[in-house]
Specification:
Length: 163
């Protein structure tokens, strides 16, 4: 059974596949079976979050700044995302992308994957969120990161002041 099939049939599978140990009141509680489905998918798949973001707090407006961060995969498998890229962007206060860089998506193994890069700070002075996203071939963010704040699947890692 594939993960997608499990997701699509999850509630039915929990009800009829291996639930003879569940009390009837829980067996037909869709919130309970959905929570069980999510728990199994979390264990079977990948679960991404960012940690250990490092950069200077200020950068010259329009200038380059160095950035490093760690993507942690707390799941049990490496995501298979052909033709996907890693997008690192600066977002304004309305969550609009002001600057961005696309990187080849690294092999995000179980455990930690470290990334060091540089990018341009926004050209207008102000404070901007630094966000990460995994985008498809149409440059649309498709993969969610766990924890923290996200806007349209762009996960905020930190902020920087353009001066």
């Amino acid at each position: 059974m594939t993960i997608d099939t499990f997701r699509r049939l999850g509630t039915s599978f929990f009800r009829y596949g291996f639930t003879n140990w569940m009390p009837n009141d829980l067996l037909y509680d869709s919130a309970c079976t959905e929570a069980g489905t999510n728990a199994v998918l979390k264990v079977l798949g990948y679960r991404l979050r960012t940690k250990a973001t490092s950069h200077k707090s200020k950068a010259a407006a329009g200038g380059d700044f160095a950035l490093s961060f760690v993507i942690e995969n707390t799941g049990s498998s490496q995501p298979y995302l052909p033709n996907y890229q890693l997008e690192v962007s600066c977002l304004d206060s309305n969550h609009n992308v002001i600057t961005r860089v696309y990187l080849a998506l690294p092999a995000i193994i179980v455990g930690d994957t470290s990334i060091a890069m540089s990018m341009k700070a926004p050209g207008v002075k102000g404070t901007y969120d630094i966000a990460i996203a995994v985008v498809d071939s149409d440059k649309i963010p498709r993969v969610s990161f766990s924890g923290g704040t996200a806007y349209s699947n762009r996960h905020v890692m930190s902020s920087i002041e353009a001066v």
